[in-house]
Structure formats: structure tokens, C-alpha cells
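User: Let's play a game. I give you a shape written as C-alpha cells, and you guess the letters that built it. Ready? Here's round one.
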């Protein structure tokens, strides 16, 4: 049903563009925009496609267990609507996955006083920087191991956001109360919500074109730019092993998450660093990381470091190190290190690009190497 509604909205939008009283923006990558003749609404529409090929070589240190596999597939097909309604202070965003029929974002944003906004609906929580960066604007084919394990992902709720200046420094505050059950979950569960707070500091001022949330220095910052972010998240009565994306367990726990990250850019050089910590406590405040069946929550620490340099021909060479370190008394989850080398060609920024990377995965059981995998990926992205 949602797919039909969105397709219908797209058809209506294209019909409206036929009116000379509507403004159409036709710059590549910016989609199209429709401005009502009385200026009481703005509708922007964008779409994008990611086509990908993966090749994996799995090696468990035994020739008998060596095998390879590959796959060609469509990774993402998204359609997005945004703009404002009645007043430029009331903005909205809708993002839908045409491939899987899932609505990712449906949020209204109201700028009620100076730099203050209140958001209501479903969207990304203010978690680790790499997760909040759009999958269209990534430096590699896909996100890191740290994000896989520790992401806060999306949820439905209310967010309060503020942005202000202290001298030349930009400061952002974000506070969120959400359902705590993840994407499109309408289940009525035992009382318990998710509480998220994030602080960001930009001591050298704003990045060009909101570049603190865009991978790679495509704008080639003329002066050094730095963004630092800290997030604390508390999710009550969670029965999934890994935040909102794990396996269902027999009991519930309260999830504690902490994220720290930074983004640095200067003259084509970009550096992203992230640290993540996750743990669980029961109702008595004890760090009990397993349930009555002996199944464990996936908790521990993670690090992600990545950097890239953009050459004059808009080819970028990049590297990434990402690791997950489970706590010592957490069974069933091994320490994992990932080393990635990437190469990207930006034809029209992140709107038209080709990216490829190769990743070595080391999975360890205690101090012994138990697995050693190699993954090669190639991806084309087209956005309108």
C-alpha cells in the first residue's frame, strides 16, 4: 500500500511540474522541486540506485573448508520526498525503499524558536556519525563493522535539537525520547523507552555544504575543519541481542551505549574516527550479559578509523580499520578486525560515482586465529 501511495505522489508531482507557476529545479543530483504558486508549500523529490557485486573468499585455515561465493544484486533503491508545508519553519521528510517496501523516514521538523527544532516521527537517532551519514554519501561501498554492531539505527519518537554559536565555535545539542523498538515496529511491548542525548562541537566553524555529515572532502575545504560528537543512549527492556537488530532472547535488559567520534577535513584529506561502547544491565542494576538459556547479548567495544585523499581528477584513495572487541565473559562472539582499501571515482560527487574496495577480515577466538576472509566489492551509484 505504501509503495502505491508513494508512486502516486510521484505521478502527482510530475503532473504539477507541467504548470508554469511551479518552480522546477533541474540540476543533476538535486531531483526536482515544486513550489506552490502561493508559496505555501515546497515539494522536493529524489531517487537513487545502488548496483553492487560482491566476491567472498572464506578461509578457516583449512584447505577442506576453503570456498568462494559471489553475488550481483541491487543494494538500495530509494525514493525521497522533502520540503516544507505552510511555512518554511515546518519541514518534512519521507524516505522509502522501493526494493524492500520499507519506509525508513517519515518525520516532521518544526523550527519553533531561533536555532531550536522539534522533530516528530520516525528517523535516524543521533548516534554514531557514520550511521547518520546517508548511505549515498559513504567513502566506501558500505559502512564499517563498528556500525554493524553498535548502530542505534532508526526509531519513532520525539527529538529536540538546538544549534548555536559560542564565538567561532558551532555547538549542537540533540535530545531524543523514542519507542526503543527500532524501524517500523508497531508492537505494544512492556513499558520502556529509549533515551538518547548527543553533543557536537565544531571549533573551526561550519563545514562547506554540511560536510561534517558527508564522507570524503569533495568540497576540498580551504581551511581545516573539525567536528567532535559524543552520544549517550539508554534503551529500556530490550530483548534483542544487538540493540534493535539482534536475535530475540528469553529475557530483557537495559542497553547502555556510548559513542564518541570526530570528522576532520582539509584540502581533499578526510579523516573519520569513532569509538563505541555497549553493555546491558538487568532490573537490579547488575551487568548480567546472558539470559536464562545461556544466550548472550552482543556487547563490548569497537573502533573505526578511516581516511581518504581526493586527487585532482576526483579519484579518491582510502583506507579503513575497524574492530569489535567483546567483553571477556561474553560467549558466542569473537573479536574481529577488518582492514579495507578503497578506490572511488566521483563523476558528479556522491550523485554519480563508482566505488570498489577489498576487505581482509580476521576473526579471533581468544588468541587463536579462527577465520580469515577476503571480500571484494564493486558498486555503481546513480542519483537524480
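Assistant: Ready! My guess for every position:
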Amino acid at each position: 500500500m505504501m509503495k502505491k501511495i508513494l508512486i502516486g505522489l510521484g505521478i502527482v508531482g510530475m503532473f504539477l511540474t507541467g504548470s508554469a507557476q511551479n518552480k522546477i529545479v533541474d540540476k543533476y543530483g538535486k531531483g526536482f522541486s515544486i513550489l506552490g504558486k502561493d508559496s505555501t508549500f515546497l515539494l522536493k523529490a529524489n531517487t537513487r540506485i545502488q548496483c553492487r557485486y560482491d566476491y567472498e573468499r572464506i578461509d578457516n585455515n583449512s584447505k577442506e573448508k576453503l570456498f568462494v561465493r559471489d553475488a550481483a544484486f541491487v543494494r538500495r533503491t530509494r525514493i525521497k520526498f522533502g520540503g516544507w508545508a505552510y511555512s518554511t519553519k515546518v519541514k518534512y521528510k519521507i524516505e522509502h525503499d522501493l526494493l524492500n517496501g520499507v519506509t525508513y523516514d517519515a518525520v516532521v521538523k518544526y523550527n519553533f524558536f531561533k536555532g531550536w527544532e522539534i522533530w516528530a516521527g520516525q528517523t535516524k537517532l543521533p548516534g554514531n556519525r557514520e550511521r547518520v551519514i546517508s548511505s549515498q554519501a559513504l567513502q566506501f561501498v558500505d559502512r564499517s563493522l563498528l556500525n554493524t554492531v553498535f548502530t542505534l539505527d532508526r526509531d519513532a519518537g520525539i527529538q529536540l535539537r538546538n544549534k548555536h554559536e559560542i564565538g567561532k565555535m558551532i555547538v549542537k545539542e540533540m535530545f531524543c525520547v523514542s519507542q526503543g523498538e527500532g524501524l517500523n515496529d508497531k508492537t505494544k511491548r512492556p513499558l520502556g523507552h529509549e533515551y538518547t542525548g548527543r553533543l557536537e562541537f565544531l571549533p573551526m566553524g561550519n563545514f562547506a555544504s554540511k560536510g561534517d555529515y558527508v564522507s570524503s572532502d569533495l568540497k576540498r575545504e580551504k581551511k581545516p575543519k573539525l567536528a567532535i560528537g559524543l552520544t549517550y543512549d539508554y534503551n529500556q527492556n530490550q530483548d534483542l541481542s544487538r540493540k534493535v537488530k539482534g536475535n530475540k532472547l528469553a529475557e530483557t535488559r537495559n542497553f547502555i551505549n556510548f559513542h564518541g567520534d570526530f570528522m576532520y577535513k582539509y584540502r581533499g584529506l578526510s579523516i573519520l574516527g569513532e569509538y563505541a561502547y555497549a553493555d546491558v544491565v538487568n532490573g537490579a542494576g547488575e551487568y548480567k550479559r546472558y539470559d536464562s538459556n545461556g544466550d548472550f547479548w552482543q556487547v563490548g567495544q569497537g573502533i573505526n578509523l578511516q581516511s581518504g585523499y581526493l586527487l585532482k581528477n576526483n579519484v579518491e584513495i582510502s583506507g579503513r580499520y575497524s574492530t569489535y572487541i567483546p567483553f571477556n565473559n561474553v560467549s558466542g562472539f569473537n573479536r574481529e578486525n577488518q582492514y579495507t582499501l578503497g578506490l572511488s571515482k566521483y563523476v558528479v560527487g556522491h550523485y554519480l560515482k563508482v566505488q570498489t574496495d577489498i576487505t581482509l577480515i580476521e576473526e579471533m577466538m581468544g588468541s587463536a586465529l579462527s577465520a580469515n576472509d577476503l571480500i571484494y566489492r564493486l558498486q555503481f551509484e546513480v542519483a537524480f
